[in-house]
Design a protein that fits this description.
Aspartate Aminotransferase, domain 1; 15 strands; about 450 residues; alpha/beta; 7-stranded mixed sheet; Aspartate Aminotransferase, domain 2; about 15% strand; 2 domains
C-alpha cells in the first residue's frame, strides 16, 4: 500500500498505527525478525548492521550462543518463581556475582529489579530509609527512566515530562559540567569547578545538605547527548557527598558492563568508592533485568518486603545475566570497546574537521556521540540533520539511534562483539550518510 507521497506503508506500520499507542515512538519503522551479533534482518530478508544495540542493551550482541543455550536450558527447568515466595539459584548466584564485581568497599547487598527505572527507584528508597532524609540531587541532561520518581529525576522535558506534572517532590537538579556546552558561559576548563560551586551554594539557597539523602549521577550522560564530564568532576563530587553525609549513587545502566572501555565507568576513578551502583540494559542481553548494588547497611535499611516485584530477578533473565558477566570478562569486551572507540573517534573526528556542521565528536570507549549544528558560531541544534542521517543510513543498511536534549546527536552503541569488517562497513555507511546530509544542508 502506498501513501499520497508515494512511500510504501508496510503491514507492520498499519498495525502500529491502528493498535499501538502514539505515546510509543519508533525511530526506524521496519520490522526485524532475526538477529545475530551486530546484524539484524527484516521480514524481507534484508540485512542491517546494528549501531544502536537497543540503546546499549546488547554489549554481548544479539542472540549470543551462550546466552541462548542458558535461556533454553533454564526455560526447560524453571521459567519462573517469584523471589517473594521462594528462592531460586539464579537469583542468588547473580546477586553474589554482582556484589563481588562492583567496586564498592566492604560488605555489599544487591536488589535485582526488572528495568533501569526500577533500579533507580529501589536505590532512592534505600537511600531515604537509611539516611532519614528525603532530598535527591540530580543533574541537568540526566536520564534515569520513565516511572514517576525516575521521570522526576530525568531532565528532558520533551518528549518525556511535559503534561505529566507534578512529579514527586524533593528532587533538585543542578548543572552537569559539559565542556562542549559550558552552562556557565566561561572557560570550559572551569566547568567542573563552577558546577560544584553552584552545588555547594545550593545547600544554602536551594536545599540544606542535611535534608539530602543522595546524589544520583551518570558518569557519562547517554540520553543527554554522550556528555563526558571533566576528569575531576566525579572525584570532587564524591568528596562533597562524603563530607556532608550524602549518599553517592552512580547510574551505570548505560555505561556499565564494558561499554566505556572498563567494566564500569567508575573504574576510571580508583578510590571513588560509591555507595550504590545501578546496573541494567546489557545485563540481560535483551531480557529484562537490572540491579542496584550497594553497601550492606544501606541496602538492608528498607523494611523486609518493602522493595521487589513479581518478576524481579526472573530465573530465565538471571540465567542470561550470569552468562553475560562471563562473556564480558572472557571475551575481553572492555578492551574491545576501547579499540572500537579509537577507530570511531579517529575516523569521525577527521570528518568533523572538514564539515563545520559537525560541532563535535565525543565519547568514552564505544559510547560515541556526533553532534550536528546549523553552524558552529551559533551552535543551533540541527535536529533535522540527524533525522536525515538516520534515514540515509537506514536506506544503506545501518541502524543508528538519536540522543541529546535537542535530539541533534547521532550516537553509536554498537554491540561490542562487532567484527572489524562489520565496524568498517558500518562506519563507511555512516560517513556517506553524514557527508550527503551535510552537503545538502537544510
Amino acid at each position: 500500500m502506498a501513501t499520497q507521497d508515494g512511500s510504501v506503508v508496510t503491514p507492520q506500520q498499519r498495525q502500529f498505527e491502528q493498535f499501538v499507542s502514539k505515546a510509543i515512538r519508533v525511530q526506524h519503522p521496519i520490522c526485524m525478525v532475526k538477529a545475530r551479533g551486530a546484524r539484524m534482518w527484516d521480514e524481507s530478508g534484508r540485512e542491517y548492521l546494528d549501531f544502536a544495540g537497543s540503546i546499549s542493551s546488547l554489549n554481548v550482541g544479539h542472540c549470543h550462543p551462550r546466552v541462548v543455550r542458558a535461556v533454553q536450558e533454564q526455560a526447560e527447568r524453571l521459567i519462573h518463581t517469584t523471589i517473594n515466595v521462594t528462592y531460586h539459584q539464579g537469583f542468588l548466584d547473580l546477586a553474589e556475582n554482582l556484589c563481588r564485581m562492583v567496586p564498592i568497599s566492604g560488605d555489599k547487598r544487591a536488589m535485582l529489579t526488572n528495568s533501569g527505572s526500577e533500579a533507580v527507584e529501589a536505590a532512592v528508597k534505600a537511600a531515604r530509609q537509611f539516611t532519614g532524609r528525603s532530598g535527591v540531587i540530580t543533574f541537568t541532561g540526566g536520564y534515569h527512566g520513565k516511572t514517576f520518581l525516575a521521570l522526576g529525576m530525568t531532565s528532558q522535558t520533551h518528549p518525556y515530562k511535559s503534561g505529566l506534572e507534578p512529579f514527586p517532590p524533593e528532587i533538585h537538579p543542578f548543572p552537569y559540567p559539559d565542556p562542549d556546552h559550558c552552562p556557565f558561559c566561561k572557560d570550559p576548563s572551569t566547568c567542573s569547578h563552577d558546577a560544584l560551586t553552584l552545588l555547594e551554594q545550593g545547600f544554602s539557597n536551594v536545599v540544606p545538605s542535611e535534608r539530602v539523602a543522595a546524589v544520583v549521577v551518570e558518569p557519562v550522560q547517554g540520553e543527554g547527548g554522550i556528555i563526558v564530564p571533566p576528569a575531576d568532576f566525579l572525584p570532587r563530587l564524591r568528596e562533597i557527598c562524603r563530607s556532608r553525609g550524602i549518599l553517592f549513587i552512580v547510574d551505570e545502566i548505560q555505561t556499565g558492563l564494558g561499554r566505556v572501555g572498563k567494566m564500569f565507568a567508575i573504574d576510571y576513578y580508583p578510590g571513588l568508592d560509591p555507595d550504590i551502583v545501578l546496573i541494567g540494559k546489557s545485563l540481560g542481553a535483551g531480557l529484562p533485568i537490572s540491579a542496584a548494588v550497594g553497601r550492606a547497611a544501606i541496602m538492608d535499611a528498607p523494611e523486609s518486603g518493602s522493595i521487589g516485584s513479581t518478576f524481579s530477578g526472573n530465573p530465565v533473565a538471571a540465567a542470561a545475566a550470569l552468562q553475560v558477566l562471563q562473556i564480558v570478562d572472557e571475551e575481553n569486551l572492555p578492551e574491545r570497546a576501547m579499540e572500537i572507540g579509537a577507530i570511531c573517534m579517529e575516523r569521525l573526528s577527521r570528518l568533523a574537521t572538514q564539515h563545520p556542521r559537525i560541532s563535535s565528536v565525543r565519547g568514552l570507549g564505544a559510547m560515541i556521540g556526533i553532534e550536528l549544528v546549523r553552524d558552529r558560531k551559533s551552535r543551533e541544534p540541527w535536529k533535522e540533520g540527524v533525522q536525515h542521517v538516520l534515514a540515509k543510513a537506514q536506506s544503506r543498511g545501518l541502524i543508528l539511534p538519536i540522543a541529546g536534549i535537542w535530539e541533534n546527536v547521532v550516537r553509536l552503541l554498537m554491540p561490542l562483539v562487532i567484527t572489524p569488517e562489520e565496524l568498517d562497513r558500518g562506519l563507511a555507511i555512516l560517513e556517506e550518510a553524514l557527508v550527503e546530509t551535510l552537503s545538502e544542508g537544510d
